[in-house]
Amino acid sequence: MTIETIETIETTCCVVGGGPAGIVAGLLLARQGVDVIVLEKHADFLRDFRGDTIHPSTLELMHELGWLEELLRLPHSKVTAITAEIGGAPITFADFSRLTLRCPYVAFMPQWDFLNFMAEKARAYDGFRLRVRAEVTDMILESGRVAGVRARLDDDGALEVRARLVLGCDGRRSIFRRRAGLEVLSSAAPMDVLWFRLTRRPGETLPFFAPGRGRVLICIDRGAYWQIAYVIPRGELEAVKAAGIDALRDSVGALHPELADRVHELRGWDDAPFLRVQVDRLRRWYREGLLCIGDAAHAMSPAGGVGINLAVQDAVAAANMLGPTLRAGRTPSARELRRVQRRRELPARLIQAVQVRAAGGLYPRDLDDDPADHVPLSFQLFQYIPALRHVAGRLIGVGVRPEHIR
Ligand SMILES: Cc1cc2nc3c(=O)[nH]c(=O)nc-3n(C[C@H](O)[C@H](O)[C@H](O)COP(=O)(O)OP(=O)(O)OC[C@H]3O[C@@H](n4cnc5c(N)ncnc54)[C@H](O)[C@@H]3O)c2cc1C
Questions:
Q1: Which of 24, 135, 212, 356 could be a cystine partner for 41, CB 3.0 to 4.6 Å?
Q2: Does the predicted TM-score (pTM) go above 0.90?
Q3: Of the residues 23, 291, 308, 314, which should be mutated to test ligand 1's pocket, given the most ligand atoms within 8 Å of the CB?
Q4: CA-CA-CA-CA torsion for 213, 214, 218, 219, nearest 10 degrees?
Q5: In whole numbers, what is the pLDDT of the chain averaged over residues?
């Protein structure tokens, strides 16, 4: 018979999930003097299925914290505009160059570098603890209030954390959605993704967004390799697989002939894992003792690469609005939690609507469809009215209701 050891921790705020939302929220609360523990189920931040974008408004937050120059010493590339070639014509969809911010561009930096950087900064605060290999499996309920969580540790141990507030930052498959009975409202995401990498030659450049018949190729520069999101119409995975891995290789080479000499690096389907794109939101982001933010509250599609930015903005708002209450040793009321949702819901819903309705028109509807045949009118106008590109640059790069460090 084995006797399981249960470790117990009492803290003020327990953050579940060490993604952009969780690490930034934990850091900013600890910076205010709040005792915080972040529980992350993985051993590190080196996971692959993540975006790499750091938006102008997130870079502005880094400036407000005094860490911008240090962050930008890490390897990254700068994108000042998003341009795609559709039907042979280049269309610039978003131009960041006129943003009156410190960095009028999107920095492409592997997300693990950004998270490691932020976790390192957070460790400088006494109240901050990060516990990796701690997978939260359940909530502790007391008189209907979330009073903490239970976690499984990698070494077969178990952990119980009791806290005044649990912040659910555990992404789109958040355990709180089901366990806390928070209703999920789903939108139809028009696409799914195969996610793979191909070697990148030094200095090589490729268009970021390249649509073609039945697929779109999004190429993210990660230095030694291209991280590629091969976007397919929703529900077409079986048909893509039935066509065979050679057909996938040919299709990549047809869109980007520069890559044709490397497509053999895709040895089989294991090299191109499937990612289901999800766009949804919680009707209510909270219940007593618990608040969900980031993808846990509103799962974002990769379109426009805005999910990380929104997660960070949610974290800043939550820390600004709840930090003083927590620091004073009080439990945030349901009203205070609702105020965070009220502040952050509009930006998330607006961007989701753009992702699903407007940007959806840039992706193929089925495997025979070419997005060049139905570029939304609003996007065609971008060719003729440059001001629209700047409006889109503001929407993507800053969003509505940008947050600032208090
Ligand atoms: C294929 C793809 C590409 C994308 N590309 C981009 C992009 O380029 N730019 C962009 O801005 N957005 C992109 N997005 C969206 C973006 O990844 C998310 O919106 C963003 O990561 C949300 O941050 P988060 O912190 O809320 O959640 P996540 O980043 O999902 O972080 C959740 C964390 O919680 C941990 N966790 C989960 N469950 C538990 C548990 N039970 N216990 C403990 N820990 C747990 C996870 O390991 C993870 O570290 C992409 C999404 C997809 C699917």
A1: 135
A2: yes
A3: 308
A4: -70
A5: 93
